[in-house]
Amino acid sequence: MDIQYNEAELAFRDEVRAFVAEKLPKSISDKVKSSEHVSPDDMITWQRALYEKGWLAINWPEEHGGPGWSPIQKHIFEEETAEAGAPRILPFGLNMVAPVIIKFGTQAQKDYYLPRILKSEDWWAQGYSEPGAGSDLASLKCRAERDGDHYIVNGQKTWTTLGQHANMIFVLVRTDTTVKKQEGISFLLVDMENTPGVTVRPLITLDGAHEVNEVFFDNVKVPVENLVGEENKGWTCAKYLLTFERTGIAGVGISKAALAHLTEIARNEKAEGKPLIEHPRVAEKLVELELELMAVEMTNLRVVSAAEAGGVPGAESSFLKIMGTEVRQKISDLYRELAGPYALPFPDEEIIEDAIGPDFSGSAASTYFNLRKLSIFGGSNEIQKNIISKAILGL
Amino acid sequence: MDFSYSDEQRMLKDMVDRVVADQYGFEQREKIIKSDAGYSPDVWAQFAELGLLAVPFSEAAGGFDGGGAELMVVAEGFGRGLVVEPYLSSVVLAGTFLDAALPDDTKAGALEAIIGGEQRYALACYEPDGRYDPHWIETTAKKDGEGYVLDGKKAVVLGGDSADQLLVIARSSGDNPSANGLSAFLVAGDAEGVSREGYTTFDGHRAAEITLANVRVGADALVGSEGGAAAPLQHALDRGVVALCSEATGAMEVACDLTLDYIKERKQFGVPIGSFQALQHRMVDMRISLEKVRSMTLWAACSLEAPEAERRQRLAAAKYMVGKAGRHVAEEAIQLFGGMGMMDESSVSHYAKRIVLIDHYLGDRNYHLDRLIDQLGEESAAA
Start and end of every Acyl-CoA oxidase/dehydrogenase middle domain (chain B) (predicted)? Predict the structure, then answer.
C-alpha cells in the first residue's frame, strides 16, 4: 500500500504543470478562479491548446487521438488543470457523443465527426431531457418518423446547456411508440445550423444567467445516416454515455481551487475590523470544508487506484457524484456568506465587469444559486442513491 | 500510487480476521466483558503467539516494524469483532511510547514482556482538568535523591485497572500546558502510594481513575530523558489515533452490513422494509459516511511518517471524521433496526456504542477541530 505518487507519476504531474503554466492564459485562469463568466472563445482557446499537445481527448482510445493515459494519469491531469484554473472541457462533444460514436457509430460517422470534435470545429449540445422527461428519461416523447432516407423529428428538448452556441446536437428520439418505453428510442445527430425547423430559445436561470435553453424541433428532416447504432437501440447508447469515464465526476480539483479562493478571501476581507479568517465561525467552516474535501479526494483516489488495477468503476461513481457535488455546494454556500451584504447586488453583466463592493462578491450569490444545479443534473443525487441501493446494496 | 494490500498485509488481515472469527462470537465477548479481568488471558496469549502484539514495534525492539498500514489492518479487524483486549492501551499507547523513548540497545528488553503478552502496560497521561490535552499535566515529579516522588491524579486510564505497569506522565518542570518539562516513569501497578478505582466503560473496555500519592521511584524508572516525554508521547498518541480510527472503520463496516441485512429481512406491511425508498436513501447515506471514514483513516495511517504539518492535519482530520460520520452511522443503524436496535441482546447496539464512544478517546471531534483551526491560524500568520 502506497498512497504517494511514484516517480513516474510525479514526473507526469510536473509535465502537466509545466504545460499549463506555459499554455493557459492568465486572463482565462483568473476568470475561472474567481467564478467569473468564461466566454466560448476562452473555452475554445484552451481546447485548441490541448488538442495541439494531443491532450484533449483523454478518455478516447489512442487510435482515435487519445493520449493512452492510465486512470491515474487522467486523474492527475484533471486535478492539475482544474487547480490551475483551466476552464472546463466542454463535455458534450468530447466525453458524451464521441464515446458513443466510437462504440456504436459507423466508420463514416467516426471519420467525419471525431476529427471535427478534436479540432473544436463543431460545438455539440445534448438533447436528452424534455419537459416531461427528467429523471425518468426513458419517458421521452420527442418523435422521429422514418420518411424515405430521412427521419422527421418533432418535439422539444430542454435544459440544453450552452445550446445557444451549438451547431450540432445529439438527441434521443422515440421511433417506436408500441413497445416498452426503453425499447423504442433512437440516438440521432442533428445539424442545428443547416437544418430548417430547429429553434433554440433561452431559459434564464435564477442567477440571471443564460446557460440553458430549450430546443424545438418542427418537422426537422434528418438524414438516416445520422442515426447512431441501430434504430430503437438508442437507450443502450444513452446508458453507455451516462456511465462513461466518471472517475472525474467528483470535481475535486475544481473544489480545491474554489476552496483556496475562499481561504484567500477570508484572509483579505474584513468584518468588524479584522480578517474574516480570524472569526471563529468562519475558520471553523473553512476547516470543516477542507476535511470534507479531503474525504472526497481520498475516496476518489481509491476509485482511481481500483480502476488502475483493472477494476471498472460502476456505481462507485454514484458515490463520488453525491460526495463531490455536496462539498462543492457547501463551498459555494460559504462563498455567499463571506460576501456578506455585498452578496445582495444583482449581478447583471455590467456589475460582474465592475463589481459593487469587493471584487469577489459580484459572483458570490450567483455562483451559490447556479451550483444548486449540481445535485440535480447528470442524474439527480436522489437517482444516484437509487442506483447505489440497487447496484451495490442489492435493495 | 497503489492502494491495494501487499501480500504480507493481506496475510496479516486474514490472520486477524480468523482469530477474531474463532474467538469472538457475541456470547464469548459478553462473557469476557463480564469476567473479573475484563479481557481474556487466552485470547491475549493467542495474540502474542500469532505475533500481533509485536506489529507496531521497530525491529530493534523485537517488533515487526509495521507501519501505519499494518496497524490499520490489525485494528480494523479488532473493530469488526469489537475486541476488548487491551491492545490499544498496552501495545499501541504504552508500547510505542517505550519504543520511541528508549535507546536502541534497551528497547528489546523493555518491550519483551509486552510483546510476549506476559505483562500488560497502561499509559497514564490524561488528567481530569486537562480533558483531552495530553500536555495538561498537574501530576508532579519531584527529585528525591537519585529518584523521584510522583503525586497526582490520572483520569480514565485505559487498561489501568489491572495493568502490571503504569507509564505515568508527570511534570518535572515547566507550567501547563507546556509540552516542555514532561517526563515519563514506569511504575508498578501495585506500587506503594498507587490507588486505582477500576471500572467497565460504556463500550465494554476497562479503565481506572488512578491516584498517585507520594509514590517513590528510583532513577531507573525514568523512561527516556527528563523533560523529554512530549515527543515519544506524540509518537504514541498518533498511533493510538490511527488504531482508533481503524477500529471505528471496522465497526462501522459491520454496523452497515448488519443494518443492510436487517432491512432486507424485516417485513412490515407485507414487504421487506428495505424496499422503502426513505430507508434505502438512509442506508446509502450510512455507506457514504463509512467511505469517508475509511478514506480518512487510510490517509492518516499512511501519513505517520509524513512531515509534521501534514501528519498533524491528517490525523486530526481522520479522528474528526470518525466522530462526525461515526455517530451518524451508529444513530442510523439503531434507527433502521427500530426497537431491536435498542436491545442489549442485538449485536448492532454494541457496535453503535463502540462507534460513538470512540469519539471520547484521545480527543473528540471538537478537540481535533480546534487543533485544525489553530493550524489554519498558524498558516495564515505565516502567509
Answer: 123-213
CA A305 to centroid of chain Cα atoms: 22
pLDDT tier for residue A62 given thresholds of 50, 70 and 90: very high
Residue of B298, B373, B376 with shortest CB distance to A3: B298
| Residue A269 bears catalytic tag | no
Q: Which residues share a beta bridge with B212?
A: B152, B194
Superfamily name and number for B231-382? Butyryl-CoA Dehydrogenase, subunit A, domain 3 (1.20.140.10)
**Helix count and strand count (H, E) for chain A:** 14, 10
User: Which residues in chain B are contacts of A73 at CB distance < 8 A?
Assistant: none
Facing residue for B298 by CB, picked from A286, A298, A388 = A298
What class does CATH assign to B7-120? mainly alpha
- CATH superfamily of the B122-227 domain: Butyryl-CoA Dehydrogenase, subunit A, domain 2 (2.40.110.10)
Cross-chain CB nearest to A385 (options B284, B299, B314): B284
- Cell 475544481 identifies what position? A254
- Measured in angstroms, the CA of B309 and the nearest CA of chain A are apart by 14
A300: nearest CA in chain B? Answer: B295
- Return the bridge partners of A154, or none: A143
Tell me the per-residue pLDDT of B72-95, one tens digit each, with 9 for 90 and over.
999 999 999 999 999 999 999 999
> Residues of B with CB below 8 A from A310's CB?
none
Helix axes A316-339, B277-301, angle to 10 degrees: 80
Do A298 and B299 lie within an 8 Å CB cutoff?
Answer: yes
Interchain proximity A275–B2, CB inside 8 Å:
no
Q: Say whether residue B277 is in contact with chain A using an 8 A CB cutoff.
A: yes
B4 touching A (Cβ < 8 Å): yes
Query: Looking at the complex, does the CB of residue B357 fall below 8 Å from at least one CB of chain A?
Result: no
| Predicted complex ipTM | 0.93
Q: Do B302 and A2 touch (CB under 8 A)?
A: yes
A299/chain B closest Cα distance in angstroms: 5
Cβ contacts (< 8 Å) between A385 and chain B: which residues?
Answer: 280-281, 284-285
- pTM (2 decimals)? 0.95
Q: Where are the domains of chain B?
A: 7-120, 122-227, 231-382
Where helices occur in chain A by DSSP H, the ranges are 7-23, 26-33, 40-53, 71-83, 91, 98-104, 107-118, 234-243, 252-268, 280-308, 316-339, 349-353, 364-370, 381-391
pLDDT at A169 over 80: yes
Burial of residue A11 (CB within 10 Å: 0-12, 13-18, 19+) is exposed
- The model's pLDDT over B178-189, given as tens digits with 9 standing for 90+, comes to 999 999 999 999
Lookup: cell for B146: 537519585
User: Does residue A247 register a pLDDT over 70?
Assistant: no
Bridge-based pairing of strands B222-223 and B267-268 is unpaired
Cα angle: A163, vertex A56, A34; to 5 degrees: 65
**Chain B residue with minimum CA distance to A288:** B369
Where residue A353 falls among pLDDT bands split at 50, 70, 90? Answer: low
